[in-house]
């Protein structure tokens, strides 16, 4: 019975998960420096331990209602094409083990070509968790623009 560990985070009262092996770190929210002429979902850049790190607002990327920043807001940091990128989430406070048999593939309704970042749906006792691969949140063109920031 194989299982994987997922970092569970919240966006606008919904639960999402990302494979813990893809997460470099989770840090408290830091105000970013705005960069002109970037996509609307790019919040800006921060200096994270000496590395200039672009910050993506996942609520803006997913067209979710902006509920603002509070003390629970976190930045999940991953590597995309050898570049550190942070994603703003409402809360990231759990790591859960989900067995492979409790993960279903994404329903056709949400699994289109532009939804390749949805790796599955995790079924837990009292909730459903949409499992994401944050590396595929951005299109190839958007990844190139992120590479050029700073």
From TrEMBL:
Pfam families: CheW. Keywords: Chemotaxis, Cytoplasm. It is found in: Cytoplasm. Residues 3-143 form the CheW-like domain. InterPro entries: CheW, CheW-like_dom_sf, CheW-lke_dom. One of its GO terms (biological process) is signal transduction. It comes from the Bacteria. The keyword Zinc-finger does not apply. SUPFAM superfamilies: CheW-like (SSF50341). GO terms for cellular component: cytosol. This is Chemotaxis protein CheW. It comes from Crassaminicella thermophila.
């Amino acid at each position: 019975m194989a299982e994987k560990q997922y970092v569970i985070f919240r966006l606008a009262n919904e639960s999402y998960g990302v494979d813990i092996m893809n997460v470099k770190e989770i840090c408290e929210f830091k105000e970013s420096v705005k960069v002109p002429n970037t996509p609307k979902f790019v919040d800006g850049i921060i200096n994270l331990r000496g590395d200039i790190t672009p910050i993506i607002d996942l609520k803006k990327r997913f067209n979710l209602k902006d509920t603002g920043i509070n003390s629970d807001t976190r930045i999940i940091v991953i590597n995309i094409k050898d570049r550190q990128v942070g994603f703003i989430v409402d809360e990231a406070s759990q790591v859960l083990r989900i067995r492979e048999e409790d993960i279903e593939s994404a329903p056709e309704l949400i699994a289109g070509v532009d939804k390749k970042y949805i790796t599955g749906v995790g079924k837990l006792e009292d909730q459903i968790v949409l499992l994401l691969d944050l590396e595929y949140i951005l299109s190839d063109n958007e990844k190139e623009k992120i590479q050029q920031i700073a």
